[in-house]
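Sequence only, no structure available. Ideas?
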Amino acid sequence: MKILSLNCWSQSVNYHLYDWRTKKILAKGTVDRVVVGDSRVRHQVTGRGGWRIPVDCPDHRSAIEVILGMLVSPEWGVLNTLDEIYAIGHRVAHGGEKFTRSVLIDDHVVAAIRAVEHLAPLHNGPNLAGIDASRALLPKIPQAAIFDTAFHQSMHKAAYIYPLPYEWYERYGVRRYGFHGASHLFMAKRGAVLLGKAPSQTNLITVHLGSGVSLCAIRDGLSVDTSMGMTPLEGPVMATRCGDIDAGISPFIIHSEQFSAKDYTAMLNQKSGFFGITGGLSDRRQILENAASGNEQCRLALEMEGYRLKKYIGAYHAAIGRLDAVIFSSNYSKMGWTAREKALSGLDFMGIRLDRDKNMRAEKEEGEMLISAENSKVPVYALPVSDGLVFAEDVVALIAGTCRDHMQHEYSFSRPDFVMPWKERD
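Reply:
I predicted one. Tokens follow.
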């Protein structure tokens, strides 16, 4: 049983082909520079190596045609025919309030995703382009939507309503939705297992640490608050996104720089965060190297990141009360140990003490690691996360008719004997 997962962005498409029977990744890759020209596919086959091949991808349909061609290629493929694909799972950034779990895609689901496209125009548009192309190219294969926002639909109204005119919520759906749902769900389930507790009795702060960064306050296994908002812009400092800023800055800069709304949105999403502070760097390794060489802006970027993560951790401790553990994803960010160290320094009063050596070793070891000190009252873990495993299990459960609310559904990774079968670190 082969399951293809697709993650379509505005100028790229990421893919993984899973073998459900053997629980292994057969192939994975990325088509870069979709739409903009000079496209290329980076294709990897487990046990056989990888290739970078120039391709022509003026749109998302052509990118998915390239992917399907790679999978059945005599030279680079892993399938004899596309009929071997059992189902396709699509990552969808925004499901609005309608979707609280993954669903099989039909015309009604597509219409509902399109209806909230205004809430995530940079994400839902490309997601829909991938869905439309896949349904056209492989019309007989079941396809499912896995929503970034679904996991956070358990938040209470006081946590997700903004202090803005209430009719904006009623008319336009302006509210906090949250993202990185599959990652936070995975950490929530694994955290409960590592603590030897039922998810319904577990309080956690989970930190998705990558180019995009988000935190989640989890009480009794449910998301009660999260740092990203109506869009993925809100939260701590990110690679190219600004995170939290004073709303008054927006009209001031738009007026001062004569920006259009589109240009200003692009600045906040693509030229802020680390990129904006350092003057053009977004890769953590480069920023660390420059900071070590005395670059003050790079040092500032790292200090800002740690400080803002620390503020969120303190706030979320207050939100959930008893804190059972802090969990960081460890496979999305190279050199992430520095962010963990800065974020957790000085939190002894909360019962959190980091073991520096363990924290640094977690950068090289791919398994789940306890990185807190022996005398830490609150354990801290760094663990690899598999969004793809969440996608695949949801797809299989949907087709079998057994997919339910995540508190009622038993994922493989919520069992004590689970061993990570799919390594997704590039």
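Residues 2-147+388-414 form a domain with the Nucleotidyltransferase; domain 5 fold (CATH 3.30.420.40).
Hope that gets you unstuck.
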